[in-house]
Design a protein that fits this description.
This protein is of the alpha+beta class. It is about 30% helix and about 35% strand.
Amino acid sequence: MRVLLIVNAFASSVTARSMVVIRKAFSADHDVEMVETSRRGHAARLARGAANDGVDVVVVMGGDGTLNEAANGLVGTDTALGVLPGGSTNVFARTIGLPNDPVEATGVLLDALAKGSIRRVGLGAVNGRCFLFHTGLGFDAAVVEQVERRSSLKRYAGHPLFVYAGFATWFRHYDTSRPRLAVHLPDGRMVDDGYMAIVLNTSPYTYLGNVPLDLAPEATLDTGLSVVVVRTMQFARVLGLIGSALASGRHIRSSRYALLAHDLDELEVTGHGPLPYQVDGDFLGDGDVFRFEHRADALALVLPAGPADV
């Protein structure tokens, strides 16, 4: 197979040694070219160019943001996306059952390619931008913005940086005194007192260390979108929702302070004023209206050949 290996050399888990080892492993059985990203949006252009050139598989070694860019470049093409964890959290790689170590994940990926374990999966899209696992609006996105402002610390601080950013955002960088958004569902339901919303294409929402944070376990690559709307910013109640997500998620489904809906083909979120949002962990700024849709069979994806909960 012709393989393009796209590497974000600045990602948290990427080292010069791992780049050499992984390229050598792929070269044993495949025609491999390796390129490094140099700026925002570069991975999307590289992936799109590879698809136009007839490359069979684009393998991405980087964080979830780099992976999202490459996926957007491959949507609607026959070129498959292969995933190697290279960031600090690697939500999507772990969601599809890959080890969190990039060298170990390489062995799993090569085995999947040898067995032809490639299938088309559905993606979410917000205002035309596709996402692999989720889009966050409101408080969630404000936390990601604070993390990105300290991006030089991500390689060393990782999850503690997210915890710090969460508290800093709560107390200094996000207006928790009033609802910030409204969610309009396709069945006519509407909730206009949301403080944040998460639209999910897969589960979990993220990981705290090795522990998955499951907001909507029903979300999979084979179903429509799920949405979770948090309707309070009272500290104790939000901690309760987080605690539920670390367990079964049952309390979230029955809580009066959260709204859940599943298997949606579309929905719309409107902000009560400019609303921050992030896509697959990449902060994209502020917006007013966000139109979501589920795109079935949008992407060819290399999946582990053994059983995996995707």
